[in-house]
Amino acid sequence: MKNNTNIDNELNTVEKKINDFENNCPVQFALKTISGKWKTSIIQTIASNCPKRFGILKKDLDNIAQGTLTTVLRELENDGILMREVFPEIPPRVEYSLTDKGIRLLPILEELKKWHTTL
């Protein structure tokens, strides 16, 4: 039993070090912010014709489920990449646009594309 406890303690220490690294490394944090199947596609789609309404985004991103689109839009909004504007109209109109932080991300995404093509 004592060996298992030591192994458990060692694993907890390693996990804590990994979590500390991920939480304190700006590059890791940035990658975590934009990672996911749809995030960069949504950012680039909005950037191509800003602002965009939800229905247009859904149409532009062929295979995305409505719930997935909603979730990813909320995540990007919470991370300060997108801004959501609700207009007091009937029927309600919601538009998504890039924030300054989102706009500053675009050249980085372009560099990532270039980097990927050189592999």
TrEMBL record:
HTH hxlR-type domain sequence ranges: 25-119
Domain of life: Bacteria
InterPro entries, sorted: HTH_HxlR (IPR002577), WH-like_DNA-bd_sf (IPR036388), WH_DNA-bd_sf (IPR036390)
Keyword entries, A-Z: DNA-binding, Transcription, Transcription regulation
Pfam families: HxlR
GO terms, molecular function: DNA binding
Keyword DNA-binding in record: yes
Keyword DNA damage: no
Entry protein name: Transcriptional regulator
Gene source species: Myroides marinus
